[in-house]
Amino acid sequence: MPDITTLPSYPLPQDEDLGVEVIPSHPLGVKPSGNALLATSNLRSAIGTWQLLPDELILMLLECLDGASLLAFGRTCKAFYAFTRAEELWKSLFIRCSPESFTWRGTWRSTYLNLPASKVPVVDCSNLYSDVLYRPFNCAHIVMDPYVTKIPKRNQIPRLPDLSPEEFHEKWADRPFILTEPIKDWPVYKNWTVGHLLSKYGQEKFRAEAVDWVLRTYGDYMADNVDESPLYLFDRNFVSKMGLAVGPPSETPDAAYWPPSCFAEDFFSVLGDERPARRWLIVGPERSGSKFHKDPNATSAWNAVLRGPKYWIMFPSGDKQDPPPGVFVSDDQSEVTSPLSIAEWLLTFHAEARRTAGCMEGICGEGEILHVPSGWWHLVVNLEPSVAITQNFMPRAHLCAALDFLSNKSDQVSGFKKTVQNPYQKFIDGMQDAHPELLQQAQEELQRKAEGKKRKWDDIVHGKAQDAEEQDAGGFSFGFGDDGSDVEVP
Ligand SMILES: O=C(O)CCC(=O)C(=O)O
Ligand SMILES: [Fe+2]
């Protein structure tokens, strides 16, 4: 019989391997709200008129206080002490002031206050019942195993040793897959442990979400944090910062890495220096990762894992395919809302996602590289401290999608320098110079898709709805398939 004093009042994964005993106690003893029902005393009764407010609102009000006021407020009673220990409050205070030099001290509060662990008081708040305070702690401690193992066969992302460019273009440009061989020769795969990066680049600053930290500090953070959504290092200038040479070893003998040959074709290269940002160094602790998104500008991507395996869950998109469970998209697809942290999404939606048509899942291990086709939704979580390199590219299979995106979704185009006016026209001009035939083919294809879509629309309007429905019943399509998905009705 589980100890009901530690039962959370929101869903836990239904897995026989997961007993409640795997959730450690909250450091202040705070328990989920549901436990208040059987409690004989409740610290909330000491907060006076504030009892009228829900916990969410109390926390929102506390976001308006500065550090000194938060400390003073926390001294008024144990319940408010627990509220003022919420890490999100201290994280945003710290990020707002972003000191040039500081010591990471295991939590955002201790770092902001520059408090050694021995000076953090242990206050017993075990008679406080709050999902708002307990949830982030619970999410930071979920066991990943049930979500990333026992992947149903139909969902498994194919694993292949390698692919030739021809095989990729003919069969694989619309499908996720993992290649197990090509990056095993990369010097960065052989050398880049977290320790090696810290000793070689420890004093170099890298971008991690809203902050630029020296790598040494980010390493301290990676090794010692309890964040529900850990700060993620995602730096697009790593090649110049680290002085790397990139390219096929035949042309660049001292290359640190090079794209596998099946991913070498990249038509955004016709934009030269004006191409949008395309490659990132990604470093993060266990539990860090990327929430559901599609890659920018209808590009495809590869993601090469140098250290620490990553779990991927992916869905195709198209106008007959809903976004993944728990993801909400505006009608023109310009706004994507995925309100939950990765851990909370796993707790709430993973089981449903696994059952949803089109779902693909897999673990990309050290020394492996994963293909993200243009237009695919993906959520990624690091199962161990991780180092990866990702690069976006535009293969011929998705030229038509790129033209469509740059011309019809110009408000969603991203990653270009502010000085680049009219990226669509720049791309057309570049392609006209370098690959006029391919450009013409892609433009004709786009035109055909637009006409097909218009014909379908006319058929429906003029009474051939049943035929159209029959055509529509063919299951999901891969992004920019033959069904004309994503093309606006002209
Ligand atoms: O490694 C990750 O967190 C995922 C990065 C990503 O979204 C990508 O490579 O497209
Ligand atoms: Fe991505």
CATH class of the largest domain: Mainly Beta
Helix content: 25-40%
Beta-strand level of the residues, as a percent range? 5-15%
The major sheet is characterized as:
7 strands, mixed
Task: Look at the helices and sheets and give the structural class.
Answer: alpha+beta
Shape: globular
| Number of DSSP helical runs | 17
Query: Quick check: average pLDDT?
Result: 89
Please indicate the count of domains: 2
Could you tell me the number of beta strands?
15
CATH architecture verdict of the largest domain:
Sandwich
Describe this structure in words.
Mean pLDDT is 89; it is low at 1-21 and 465-490. The protein has 2 domains: 4-139, no CATH class; 145-412, Jelly Rolls (Sandwich). By secondary structure, it is α+β, with helices and mostly antiparallel strands. It starts with 54 loop residues before the first helix and ends in an 18-residue tail after the last helix. The protein is 32% helix and 14% strand. Strand 10 (328-329) and strand 11 form a beta hairpin. The strands form 4 sheets. It has a 7-stranded mixed β-sheet. A 4-stranded antiparallel β-sheet has the order 7-14-9-12, with no helix packed on it. The protein has 17 helices and 15 strands. Bound molecules: 2-oxoglutaric acid and fe (ii) ion (FE2).
